[in-house]
């Protein structure tokens, strides 16, 4: 059935009404619309409703798009914040961090700590060759680490060597694992500087090797091995432990006037012949034999001290020689050499010196034993003719054997030297002094050479007695067993008497010794005898180290307890107990100044150490008058110990060599009589 057809004008009106309804409602329809027009209007209404729902859907879609944009903006903000946090963590981390391409090991990115440690920027490192950053075999170790991480997902390298931009090297402990950098698969990890620990471990390994060498030598020495076999073994052990090209041992004969190459390793025959012609004093080895001091050379081919040209042709470079010493006399020379670029350093020198200190006494003992055997044979021949001397000769042999055992014991028990001195030196010294005094009573029966010899014996025994007394006093001070009288006395007469005692010695040396001021009411409680000895040692020290024409002045001053306490920061290093003890109200300061040779920087504390007496043993002397003569190095130790025992403190001051020195001490004073 066909639908009615509307005229074109009516159809346009209905379309306009539908559009009006779609725009704003049904009021726009004509009131006189026929039924067909109403049907068409219903369709328009349906169309308008559909458009309205579409608009609402579009609005909801718009709202959802806005919400999605807001969520995206928030996600972008969070992503930016996460990126900033990542960069802060990366660049402010205490350890160096890195990212590596797992395929070729190329460094992609490093943090600021890594830039500081290596000296390269991140941009520099991206274009840096691995061979530059990881020297030698460490490049291969780094690539092996990357391959290990690709296989297992993680890995570490405790000692990977890096080369900084300035060419210096550092050891890094590396820990890394497989991960992502954005959408890129990377190896990321961190490392920190373990160079001090690695160097310490290397030092410990080297010291362990040296200790093993010394222990092996000591074990062989303890076995009583024959001296020639022992020296050959020692040379083998030294060359093997140090890893050098070769070495040798010279032995000295005829009181050090001749020497010969007894053992050698790694030397061609023609070089051995030239070395066998060396004499003490010629070349580096001869200088060691003559002086008893070690010598070393970085390049023997350019060293003018070398007097054997063949060593240059043999390719010798680094060289080190040390003396084999016993009782401060040189018995031989141990030397090693290297043909490669390695340079023997002072660590190896100290090791060889320790070897020499172990071997030297053994060589001395072997020489003494040979001498004893020869003496024994001579004595046996004499016994057949002189029966009445049998007992005396036997006693001498036993005494020599005891002395030999004593020398070995002293080398092994240096720490108990003072105790041995109190038991082993005092008794024979008493015999010598007693015998010399007995002979002195019969000096009239002696001729002039005999009297001179007796005078020398008396003088020498007296010096030795003073030395033994000093050693025993040092032992008592260490054991805190020195008896001190606790009596009150005036310090002024003590100082005046002390200056008077030294006037004769000072006049002999053309020195001026004076007391600057006179004390009053300086009452000290203690032992006047021991305090006088302590001050006497300080004056004696000033006399020894002041050249002729110089001056020595003794000054005094009084200080309050608060003034003394203010010195704790400057003088605390000179005494561990003085500033912690109860404070006295008043203190007496005694200052002994001189115009002598002064002190080198850093010696202010060391001069009070036991047996510290400088580095030139040839200048040692127990004389009280000789300029620059050095004793065994316990005079100032004893003075300090006695001052400490009086609850005082002793220290030294000097502005430098040739500027004179001052020895100052503080002693607590007794309160005045009325204030007790």
Commentary on this structure:
There is one protein chain. This protein is an alpha+beta fold. It folds into 5 domains: 1-88; 93-193, 2-Layer Sandwich (Beta-Lactamase), CATH 3.30.450.20; 224-370, GAF domain (Beta-Lactamase); 413-481; 487-675, Heat Shock Protein 90 (2-Layer Sandwich). It has helices at residues 8-23, 35-92, 112-118, 122-126, 130-133, 138-152, 195-222, 227-242, 269-276, 283-291, 310-313, 346-385, 390-412, 417-441, 448-479, 491-508, 528-544, 561-565, 568-571, 603-606, 635-645; strands spanning 96-100, 107-110, 154-163, 169-181, 184-193, 246-253, 258-265, 295-297, 318-326, 329-338, 487-490, 512-515, 523-526, 551-560, 586-594, 649-653, 661-668. Strands 2-1-5-4-3 form a 5-stranded antiparallel beta sheet. The longest helix has 58 residues, at 35-92. The termini are far apart.
Notable characteristics:
flat, Beta-Lactamase, single chain, 5 domains, alpha+beta, 676 residues, 52% helix, 18% strand
Question: Briefly, what is this?
Answer:
This protein has about 675 residues and is an alpha+beta fold.
CATH topology of the largest domain: Heat Shock Protein 90
Average pLDDT for all residues: 80
Tell me the domain tally. Answer: 5
Termini Cα gap: 148 Å
C-alpha-based Rg, rounded = 48 Å
Question: What is the CATH architecture assignment of the largest domain?
Answer: 2-Layer Sandwich
Strand percentage lies at: 15-25%
Low-confidence stretches: 1-6, 17-33, 617-621
Largest sheet: 5 strands, antiparallel
């Amino acid at each position: 059935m066909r639908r009615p057809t509307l005229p074109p004008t009516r159809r346009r009106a209905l379309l306009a009404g539908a559009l009006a309804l779609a725009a704003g409602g049904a009021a726009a329809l004509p009131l006189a619309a026929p039924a067909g027009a109403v049907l068409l209007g219903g369709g328009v209404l349906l169309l308008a409703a559909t458009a309205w729902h579409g608009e609402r859907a579009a609005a909801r879609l718009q709202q959802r798009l806005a919400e999605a944009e807001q969520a995206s903006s928030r996600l972008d903000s969070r992503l930016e914040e996460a990126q900033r946090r990542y960069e802060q963590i990366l660049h402010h981390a205490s350890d160096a961090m890195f990212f590596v391409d797992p395929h070729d090991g190329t460094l992609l990115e490093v943090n600021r700590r890594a830039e500081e440690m290596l000296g390269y920027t991140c941009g520099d490192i991206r274009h840096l060759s691995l061979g530059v950053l990881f020297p030698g075999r460490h490049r291969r170790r780094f690539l092996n680490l990357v391959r290990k991480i690709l296989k297992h997902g993680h890995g570490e390298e405790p000692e990977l060597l890096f080369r900084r931009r300035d060419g210096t090297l550092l050891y890094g402990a590396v820990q890394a694992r497989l991960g992502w950098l954005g959408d890129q698969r990377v190896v990321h990890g961190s490392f920190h500087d373990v160079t001090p620990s690695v160097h310490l471990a290397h030092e410990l390994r080297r010291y362990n090797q040296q200790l093993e060498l010394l222990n092996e030598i000591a074990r062989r020495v303890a076995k009583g091995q024959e001296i020639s076999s022992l020296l050959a073994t020692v040379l083998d052990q030294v060359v093997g432990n140090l890893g050098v090209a070769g070495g040798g041992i010279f032995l000295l004969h005829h009181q050090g006037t001749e020497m010969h190459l007894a053992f050698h390793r790694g030397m061609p025959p023609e070089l051995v012949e030239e070395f066998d012609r060396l004499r003490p004093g010629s070349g580096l080895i001869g200088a060691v034999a003559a002086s008893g001091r070690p010598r070393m050379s970085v390049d023997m081919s350019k060293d003018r001290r070398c007097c054997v040209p063949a060593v240059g042709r043999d390719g010798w470079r680094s060289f080190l020689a040390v003396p084999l010493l016993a009782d401060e006399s040189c018995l031989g020379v141990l030397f090693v050499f290297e043909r490669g670029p390695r340079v023997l350093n002072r660590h190896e020198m100290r090791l060889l010196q320790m070897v020499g200190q172990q071997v030297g006494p053994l060589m001395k003992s072997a020489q003494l034993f040979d001498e004893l055997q020869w003496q024994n044979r001579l004595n046996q021949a004499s016994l057949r003719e002189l029966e009445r001397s049998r007992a005396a000769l036997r006693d001498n042999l036993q005494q020599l054997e005891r002395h030999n055992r004593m020398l070995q014991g002293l080398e092994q028990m240096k720490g108990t030297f003072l105790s041995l001195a109190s038991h082993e030196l005092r008794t024979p010294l008493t015999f010598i002094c007693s015998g010399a005094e007995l002979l002195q009573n019969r000096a009239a029966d002696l001729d002039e050479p005999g009297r001179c010899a007796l005078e020398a014996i008396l003088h020498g025994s007296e010096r030795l007695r003073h030395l033994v007394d000093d050693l025993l006093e040092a032992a008592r001070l260490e054991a805190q067993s020195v008896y001190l009288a606790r009596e009150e006395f005036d310090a002024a007469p003590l100082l005046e008497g002390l200056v008077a005692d030294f006037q004769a010695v000072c006049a002999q040396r053309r020195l001026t010794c004076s007391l600057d001021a006179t004390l009053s009411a300086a009452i000290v409680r203690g032992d006047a005898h021991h305090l006088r000895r302590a001050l006497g040692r300080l004056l004696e020290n000033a006399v020894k180290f002041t050249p002729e024409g110089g001056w020595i002045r003794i000054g005094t001053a009084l200080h309050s307890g608060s003034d003394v306490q203010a010195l704790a920061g400057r003088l605390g290093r000179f005494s561990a107990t003085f500033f912690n003890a109860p404070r006295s109200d008043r203190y007496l300061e005694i200052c002994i100044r001189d115009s002598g040779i002064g002190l080198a920087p850093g010696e202010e504390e060391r001069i009070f150490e036991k047996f510290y007496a400088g580095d030139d043993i040839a200048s040692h002397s127990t004389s009280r008058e000789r300029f620059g003569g050095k004793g065994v190095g316990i005079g100032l130790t004893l003075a300090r110990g006695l001052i400490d025992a009086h609850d005082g403190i002793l220290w030294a001051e000097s502005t430098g060599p040739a500027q004179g020195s001052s020895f100052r001490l503080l002693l607590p004073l007794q309160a005045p009589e009325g204030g007790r």
